[in-house]
Backbone:
C-alpha cells in the first residue's frame, strides 16, 4: 500500500521512509505542507498519510482540514506526527480531520500497529464501497444483459425529455424487438435464448454514443434513448442497429442462430413535445407496423 510521508526534517524523513519500506509500504515523500496537499488531492493519492504537524508553508493540521473539505473517495487515512502534548491541541487535530496521531518520539512497534489499524479501516471501506456499487448496479441494471433495467431506462428517458424541452432540442427513441424470439426459445431452449438476448444487447450497445442509453424494456424488447437526435437521425441509427444485429448469426451452445430485429422509431421536438408515455406509445405503434410488414425492418412514427 502507498503511504505519504510529509516531514520537513530530511534525516527523520529518510529514516521513516526506510523503515516503512522495510514494512512493505510504497513510500511517497513531501518536504512541506503544500506538496503534501497536492499529492493528496491528485488523481490517484496514497490511501495512508503521515503528516508532521509543524511544516513550512502549511501545517499538517491544515492539510487534513483541506483534504476533508473535498470529501472525495477513496478515503485517505491521515496520521498526525506531533510533539504537541496538550489535550486541546490534539482535539484540534482530530477535528480538522486527522484519523489518529502519534507523538514524537515514538516507538516503532507503536507506529506499526497504528498504521496496521489504518490499513484495516481502508480495507473495510473498500469492501463497503464495493458492496454499495454492486447494490447500485443490481438496482439499476438488468441482470441478464447488463443493460439499464425497465425502471432506470424510463427514468433516463424522462430526464432527457425534460432536458430537451428546456433546451428546445430533439430526443429520439427506438423500440427494438427480437424477431420470433419465442420460436428461438421453443426450438433451441431458454439457455440459447439467453445467449441470443445477451449477444443482441451487446451488439446494439457497441453502437451507442457515450451519451446514448439502451435498456431492456421487457422480455425481448429494448428501449434506446437518443439525446439531441431528431426523427430522421433516430431512423438512420435504428437501421444501423438492425444491420449490426442481423449481420452475423449468434453462436450459442445449440449452434449458430440467425437473429433479426424489428424497430420502431419516434422523436420529440420543440414543435412536437411528448411525455414519456406518449413517446413510447408512438414508438411501439411504429414497431408494430414493422412487425406487420414482415419484420427485420425499421418503421418510423407516422406524422401526427
Residues:
Amino acid at each position: 500500500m502507498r503511504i505519504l510521508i510529509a516531514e520537513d526534517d530530511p534525516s527523520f524523513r529518510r529514516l521513516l521512509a526506510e523503515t516503512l519500506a522495510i514494512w512493505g509500504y510504497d513510500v511517497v515523500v513531501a518536504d512541506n505542507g503544500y506538496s503534501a496537499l497536492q499529492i493528496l488531492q491528485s488523481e490517484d493519492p496514497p490511501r495512508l498519510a503521515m503528516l508532521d504537524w509543524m511544516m513550512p508553508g502549511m501545517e499538517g493540521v491544515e492539510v487534513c482540514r483541506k483534504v476533508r473539505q473535498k470529501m472525495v473517495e477513496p478515503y485517505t487515512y491521515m496520521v498526525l506526527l506531533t510533539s504537541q502534548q496538550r489535550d486541546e491541541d490534539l482535539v484540534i487535530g482530530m477535528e480538522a480531520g486527522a484519523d489518529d496521531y502519534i507523538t514524537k518520539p515514538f516507538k516503532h512497534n507503536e507506529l506499526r500497529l497504528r498504521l496496521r489499524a489504518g490499513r484495516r479501516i481502508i480495507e473495510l471501506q473498500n469492501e463497503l464501497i464495493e458492496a454499495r456499487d454492486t447494490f447500485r448496479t443490481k438496482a439499476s441494471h438488468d441482470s441478464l444483459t447488463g443493460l439499464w433495467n425497465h425502471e432506470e431506462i424510463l427514468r433516463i428517458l424522462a430526464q432527457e425529455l425534460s432536458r430537451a424541452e428546456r433546451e428546445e432540442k430533439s430526443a429520439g427513441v427506438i423500440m427494438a424487438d427480437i424477431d420470433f424470439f419465442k420460436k428461438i426459445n421453443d426450438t433451441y431452449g431458454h439457455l440459447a435464448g439467453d445467449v441470443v438476448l445477451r449477444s443482441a444487447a451487446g451488439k446494439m450497445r457497441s453502437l451507442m454514443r457515450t451519451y446514448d442509453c439502451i435498456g431492456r424494456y421487457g422480455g425481448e424488447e429494448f428501449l434506446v434513448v437518443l439525446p439531441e437526435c431528431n426523427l430522421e437521425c433516430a431512423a438512420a441509427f435504428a437501421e444501423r442497429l438492425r444491420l449490426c444485429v442481423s449481420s452475423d448469426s449468434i453462436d450459442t451452445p445449440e449452434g449458430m442462430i440467425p437473429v433479426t430485429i424489428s424497430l420502431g422509431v419516434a422523436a420529440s421536438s420543440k414543435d412536437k413535445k411528448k411525455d414519456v408515455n406518449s413517446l413510447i406509445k408512438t414508438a411501439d405503434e411504429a414497431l408494430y407496423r414493422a412487425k406487420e410488414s414482415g419484420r427485420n425492418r425499421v418503421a418510423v412514427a407516422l406524422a401526427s
In short: The chain has two domains: 2-139, 150-300. Residues 65 and 96 are 5 Å apart (CA to CA).
